Each structure stands twice: as C-alpha cells, then as structure tokens.
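Our preliminary data section would be incomplete without showing what the modeling component actually yields. Below, a chain of 422 amino acids is followed by its predicted structure, encoded as tokens that our downstream tools consume directly.
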Amino acid sequence: MRWKDNHYRPTLELLEKRDLPATAMLSGGYLYVTSTAHHEFVTVSQSNGKLSVSGTPITVGSSRVSSVSTTQVNKVVVYAYGGADVINLRPSAATAVTKPSYVYVAKGSNQVYGGSGSNYIIADSAGYNTLNGYTNTDYLAAGSTTDTLNGSGGFDWYYRPINASYPFVNGAHVSDIKQGAAPSCQTDAALAEAVQQGFNFANSIHYLGNAKYQVSLYGGSSRQTVSFNGWYNSQDPVPAASGEYWAILMYRARLQMLGISPTTHYTEAQWDTINRSAGGQLYSVADSVYAFTGRPAQFTAMSAVTPQGLQAALGRGDYVVASSVGGGGTTADGIIRNHAYALLKVYYQSGIWKVQMYNPWGMDSTNGRTLDALSGTPPENHGFITVSWSQLRSSVNFQGVTLAHVTAAQTAYFKTLSGSRL
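Predicted structure:
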C-alpha cells in the first residue's frame, strides 16, 4: 500500500525585526561607537563634562552607564556599517564633542557631522556621503567622486582619489580655478588668464613618481618639486572637479619658489608679513603672470587703456589681469575690492563696449549677487561676470590692468585659432 504522508512538518513563524542598535564601549581612553548594517542615527553629545551616546548605554568594564567623564576619553571612534547613517557629534553648539574623533562610514549615503575637536572622517569607496568638519582642524577623506566634503571652518585637509599621472579632468579650463582661503587672488587670476589665452599647463607639470611632480615656472628657469598625494588643504585652490589638481600644483610651486611652505597654516596677518618680507612679490599680479607664462608683465593705470587696445591685446593672446581698488567689501557695482580678475573678452554689443571677466573666487560677488545683466545669458553665480566699459574704467571699481605680451611665435599661433577660447 502507498505510504500516507501524515507526519509532522515544522514551520517558521516570522517575528518582528530585532536588529541590534548601535553599541558603545569605553576602553583604553577610547570611546568606541559601532552601528549596525542598517539605517541609524548615532548622536554623541557632551554636556557638563560628560559624554553620552543617545539611546545607547556605554559599556565600561562589566558595567553599563549612561555617560562617561570627558577626562576618561582621549578620542571618540565611530564605525558606521550601515547605509544612510547619520553620525552627529554636534547636536548643538553647546553640546558639541570637544574631543578628537575618528569616524568611518561604510557603503551608502551617509551624513557625518564632526564635533569641535579635530575630526578625521573617512568614507568607503562607494556611496554618496557628506562629510562635515567643524571649527577645528579636520581631515575629510572621500572614498569616491560622489562624496561631498565640507570643512566648516579651521585649517582643514581634504582627500580625494586621484590619477597620479594626470592632474587634469577633461583638460584645463578657466572655471577650474577656485580660490581657497589664502589671499591668492593674484595667483589664481593669473592662472585663469593663462588658461583663457591657451597656455598649456600640461607642459609645465611632469610626474616624477612617488607622489612628486616637477613644476616649471618663469619659462623653465625655475623648477620646483611639489609633493601631492591627493590631500589638499583649505588654503589651496579648491578642485572644481573630483580628481583635478593641476591648479594646486602650480599654486604650491609658486609658494615654494618664494620660500613659503604650502602645507602650513598662515593667518591673514602672517600672509601680509610674508608678502612684505618678499618685497611685495607674493601679492604681485605681474610676478604671478610672469611665474606661470614666462612673459614679463607691466601695470597700466585704467585711465591709460582703451577698449580697442584691450580687445586687440586679448585677440593676439596677451595676458591681461584687472586689479580692483583697495579697501574691503564690494563696490556699488558688486566689484570686490582689493581683488584681481582675469580679463576674458572685450567686445562691442548693443551700442556699448562690454568686458567679460572671471572672478577667481568662482562666484560673481558677495552675498550671492550675480553680475550677468549685460551678458545676455540667464544669471548664474559662477564667477563669469560682464560689466560695461564705463564700469571697468570707473575709479571706484578698478585701478588698472597688468598686461604681458606674447612672443611673435605665440602671436602667429593665435592667429590660426578661431572661435572663443572659453
């Protein structure tokens, strides 16, 4: 006879999710906080001399406590293994963690907010992470090109993955230049002007291996060995694209040539002292243009130039940088005082002469103001501004221009070009 299948079959009953929450432990002066592989909010706060982890007891030996004294902690260490975690070491200004921290976030779209101590925050190689420092010196390391790094004050360091043998991303462009926290507008405006006029910086940079580059200045009469391994600081030019660092190499080379360490933090007063010690060479627009292009440059007062003359100079490939009036803040026309602008184009349109320039800050003016009214294009706060000739000539806006003539060979080359070099 056929066997009747009437024996017992066990079944599984699904229960509610019981993932372990973040855990915290104090050991050897380190407060370790570890999250799970799921979306979590991990908040570490400091109040009345004590550190606590929101919703999580802290294991100290065989005990579990709600908080520990700051005197017991040398560093806060957070390992976040989930996707879309929010790690917050500053729930408020009053409760920000003052101890140094190390935070690692795994794959996923994570957000990290460092405390007021020095933060070292590193992201995995996949995801869309936002890493935020705070008021102290922070070290923010992106794992991929999609990560966002915000120093939020202090002398900060940033890391992005790079191609060590090629410092450009889709070539060199004027918009690659974005000034950092250093008073380097003269340097950055000269770089932007040289790019606009077709100078090939690929010929100035040679990779030596072991994160070292030979950078040529002053037409090859000076060569600097510059170190770069993907880490840059808040005083360096800000990379316009992840993995792009040619402007950093050129900037650092010029500082080194002047005997200035490019990896040291200087206050504004210290920068001014360095400039005086260098005989004004650091803040010199003329020296900056000469350093990068090898072409001697001279300053001309704005009252002595004409639109036709500048149009012709730019047309043959000369390098022209405009210097605004001294002082602080901005003029009524939105021009930043005591600043250098790269001149891109002088042209006659709609009955007036217009001048297109580039602000090396990468923005038009302060307070989000756009200076595109004369450009005929939709307003964008991207550093490209258009002013009238009368605004350029106005003594309340600009002092004059620094101009370097190209060689005859360069002039012949530019005559073969057509169209805009923007």
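Helices lie at 185-196, 246-257, 268-277, 285-293, 307-315, 389-393, 408-415. The chain is about 15% helix and 30% strand. Preliminary results of this kind motivate Aim 1 of the renewal.
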